[in-house]
């Protein structure tokens, strides 16, 4: 898989929590945590949107934009 560099701004509390997970040895890097979180988010969102009919999806999108 080809990787790209992405710069994000996150609250200090998020950064502290991420560093704690690394210090505990649960993850190797910040990048690994962000990649896994983003993958989980996208999997959830894509599963959700794939179950919608086009009409229902449009209604949800219009409510989110308000």
Note the quaternary state here.
single chain
Overall geometry: elongated
**What is the count of distinct domains?**
1
Low-confidence stretches: none
What string, H for helix and E for strand, traces the elements in order?
HHH
Structure description:
The protein has 3 helices and no strands. The protein is mainly α. The protein has one domain (12-64). The radius of gyration is 16 Å and the shape is elongated. The mean pLDDT is 87.
Write the layout of secondary structure elements.
Blueprint: H1 12-23, H2 30-50, H3 54-64
Summarize this entry quickly.
By secondary structure, the protein is mostly helical. The protein has helices spanning 12-23, 30-50, 54-64.
Keyword list:
mainly alpha, single chain, 67% helix, 66 residues
């Amino acid at each position: 898989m080809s990787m790209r560099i992405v710069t994000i701004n996150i609250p200090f509390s998020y950064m502290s929590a991420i560093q704690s997970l690394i210090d505990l040895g649960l993850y190797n890097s910040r990048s690994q945590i962000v990649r896994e979180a983003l993958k989980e988010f996208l999997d959830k969102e894509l599963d959700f949107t794939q179950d919608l009919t086009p009409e229902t999806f449009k209604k949800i999108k219009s409510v989110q934009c308000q």
